[in-house]
Amino acid sequence: MASGTALIYDEEMTTHKLLWSDPVCDIEVPERLSSSYDQLKRYHLVERCVHVPAREASQEEILLVHSSEHLEVAKSTQTMNEEELKKVSGNYDAFFFHPNTYCCARLAVGATLELVDAVMSGKVRNGMALVRPPGHHSQRNAANGFCLFNNVAIAAEYAKLKYGLQRILIVDWDVHHGQGTQYIFEEDPSVLYFSWHRYEHQEFWPSLKESDYDAVGLGKGKGFNINLPWNKVGMGNSDYLAAFFHVLLPMAFEFDPELVIVSSGYDSGIGDPEGQMNATPEVFAHLTHFVMQLANGKLCVILEGGYHLKSLSESVCMTVRTLLGDPVPQITGEMAPCLSAVESIQNVRAAHKSYWKWLMYEDTSFLQNLSTKSLLLKKANPNPSTEHESKITNNDETVKVERFLELHMKNILFPVPPIKTATTDSRGSVHLLPVPVHFVKEIDKTEIKALVSGFYADIVKEDKNLLSLGSILAILDKILKKEVCNGIAESPTCSVSVAVALRHSVRFGFQRVLCIFVGDMEIIPNTEDGKILMIHICEKEQSGKTRSKHYISLNWKEDAEGNDFFPAVLGFILPVAYSYQPNLTVIAVGPNRSLGISGISLLFSLLQGLAESRILAVIKDTEINVMQSVAKALVGASAPQFGVYVPPTQEKVNKIKILRDQFQQEWKMLQCSVKDGI
Ligand SMILES: CC(O)(O)CCCCCNCCCN
Ligand SMILES: [Zn+2]
Q1: Reduced to 3 states, what is the DSSP secondary structure of residue 419?
Q2: Quick check: is 295 in a domain?
Q3: Per-residue pLDDT tens over the stretch 74-101
């Protein structure tokens, strides 16, 4: 399996610059690239990447998307003087030419294509290209919005042609709508284009009707264009994550792309003068982590916008360290999407209902009045104040953002633990694990006996568990001390091991431990004090135990031939887990598991975004192949295989909906529709 992360940067691309005064374009400065690269060096991230040199794209490559007229105009600008440059620039909305622009734009395209080749050839698993001028506004026959050639669109056409790909996902998290990319692929079902963007009911640039949620694609491309408009500024981490859980990820996993390309604009981050949003740099680590789970990890991240230099460079670093497999930093802020975000999410789900299996049973009865409702909302407050008091309002607040980011990033970034995964194996069958892991010496028996007879006597009745408990406590200690990121322990009786592990974790200071138990669980630990949140995935209804905010039983029997667990993980488990914000995750696989291997590895892969990727896995000792796939997911040795996508049955969709309705007031990340009576 491919490994390694490519980084493509060429300082030649800093020579494109504005030669006259233009308040619209003067934010797109060369320092955007150089300060991002400098910050990557400061965090020692450059040296950990595979350096891939940029190259100039050929004319044929540019003509994959653009007209020859467009190419000729661009070429002709190389020899123009300032007056001529200004004149030809005036033909476009928000674009400026410099004598070097044509060369820089060819390098931006060439860098992007080199990254596609490095990923598709297996030279690396994923990578990032730091390019300018950006691309997603440029169209077949026009430059637009700082963009001359559409780097990402050319890359998608190039990948289809050279590698015969039939399904490419483009994720555009830039705060502007990539209308150029939309126009290029809107009739093409082989390219799924997702964009969120500041819209404010068509007030915000480029102020297009076709940027709204009902632009779903044309002809054969219907359903393959997804627009999520933000109708207020001040959107934050929870709004972005909710958009992934309830819109992008279910579409993406059903689409099952062979390659993912990100139009990675960071003007959607805090402090940016264009976006006016509040999402902090670490949210880009989470977004990157999620898209890394698709296409067997084949991911190309291409820079688009981002105009606050400090916010931009921190967010670029968050992206690259996640591509390298580093632990995902804890998300900050209140975990509840705002009403306007939930409304947009609900609208885009409704607009796509007839094109996606996962939305087949979506209830869109609200539609007839909601869209008018949002117009009513707009009339109700003509100058919409932001839902969130946007901490940073204008440029002279930039100092505040600098200060905020200085403090904020300090406690976010931690040294990467030397070893990713620890394990011990009481039966000495260490060859079981297919990946290099760190073996923890076991605590000796007398020590365990003393420990157990003290604090856990009421749980541990038989000696046969002592060995397994020893290894669990040894691994927990390493995780507690941040010497390792995660660990795997096998156990003859998982309930006992899990109960001890949970009590031990809370005793040693973890305030919120998320436990996902798959299979039969004899002992149900005490969840009353809220320090443990238990999600029990089992085949049959748990008698006796009342459901509470901190004990949720999810009855799920995975479909025989494939993996139908996606809606449960994306639409329920992740939103609850992110609402809870655990600082440790324990995932146990006990006897009579009702999930297949692919469902289980989906859990392990996606839950690594929580608790700084701290996970303790407790696996029934007879489940050898579960152990193998869990080890691969935890070490990150290979992009996980999630099996054949099976759309959920109506019965299963209803099960999730009932649970969501029951818990969405407690766990607000579950919200994806506006209840009647706003
Ligand atoms: C790559 C990118 O999406 O960040 C480029 C954004 C261009 C913004 C142009 N604003 C024009 C405002 C005119 N009143
Ligand atoms: Zn932008």
Answers
A1: strand
A2: no
A3: 999 999 999 999 999 999 999 999 999 9
Which pair of tokens denotes residue 192?
């799924």
pTM over 0.80: yes
The answer to whether the CB of 197 falls within 8 A of the CB of 229 is yes
Among protein residues, the one whose CA lies closest to atom 2 of ligand 1? 305
CB-ligand 1 contact for 157 (6 Å cutoff)? no
**In 3-state terms, what secondary structure has residue 193?**
strand
Mutate-to-test residue for ligand 1 from 174, 177, 266, highest number of ligand atoms within 8 A of CB: 174
Q: Which domain holds residue 147?
A: 1-164
Strand order in the sheet with 50-51: 50-51, 5-9, 126-130, 299-303, 259-264, 168-172, 191-198, 225-230
Residue 79, burial from CB neighbour count under 10 angstroms (0-12, 13-18, 19+): exposed
Is 362 a domain residue?
yes
- Closest Cα partner for 426 from 410, 411, 439, 409? 439
Do 538 and 629 have their domain in common? Answer: yes
Separation of alpha carbons 168 and 189, rounded Å: 9
Domain count, the chain: 3
The pLDDT score that the predictor gives to residue 428 is 46
Answer with the one of 140, 164, 188 that is the final residue of a domain.
164
Same domain, 636 and 613: yes
Closest ligand 1 atom, residue 265 Cα: 4
CA neighbor of 622 nearest in space, from 585, 593, 586, 587: 593
pLDDT band at residue 368 using 50, 70 and 90 as cut-offs = low
For residue 176 and ligand 1, the question of a CB distance below 6 A is answered with yes
* DSSP annotation of 568: H
Is 301 part of a structural domain of the chain? no
Beta carbons of 537 and 518 less than 8 angstroms apart = yes
Cα(475) to centroid(ligand 2), Å: 45
Same domain, 587 and 616: yes
Residues 35 and 112 in one domain: yes
Q: Are residues 404 and 427 in the same domain?
A: no
Q: CA-CA distance, 234 to 593, in Å (whole number)?
A: 43
Residue 187 · residue 221 · CB < 8 Å: yes
Mean of pLDDT values over 374-394: 48
- Ligand 1 pocket, residue 205 CB under 6 Å: yes
**Does the predicted interface ipTM exceed a cut of 0.85?**
yes
* Residue 105 and residue 150 in one domain: yes
CA distance 659 to 673: 14
Q: Which ligand is nearest to the CA of 135?
A: 1
Nearest CA to ligand 1 atom 1: 305
Residue 262 lies in a domain: no
Name the residue of 18, 152, 176, 197 whose CB sits within 8 Å of the most ligand 1 atoms, as the mutation to test its pocket: 176
- 459: domain CATH number? 3.40.800.20
Final residue belonging to a domain, choices 132, 164, 196: 164
- Give the number of whichever ligand sits closest to the CA of residue 94: 1
Rounded Cα distance between 304 and 265, Å, is 4
Peptide bond before residue 206 is cis, with ω within 30 degrees of 0:
yes
Active centre residues (catalytic):
137
Picking from 611, 537, 562, 578, the residue whose alpha carbon sits closest to that of residue 245 is: 578
Q: Distance (Å, rounded) from C-alpha 79 to C-alpha 522?
A: 78
3-state SS, residue 548: strand
Question: In this structure, what is the dihedral angle of CA atoms 411, 415, 419, 424, given to the nearest 10 degrees?
Answer: -40
- HSE of 235 in the Cβ direction (CA atoms, 13 Å)? 31
Give yes or no: residues 454 and 507 share one domain. Answer: yes
> Do 402 and 529 belong together in one domain?
no
Segment among 356-365, 412-421, 572-581 with least mean pLDDT: 412-421
Mean pLDDT of 316-340: 95
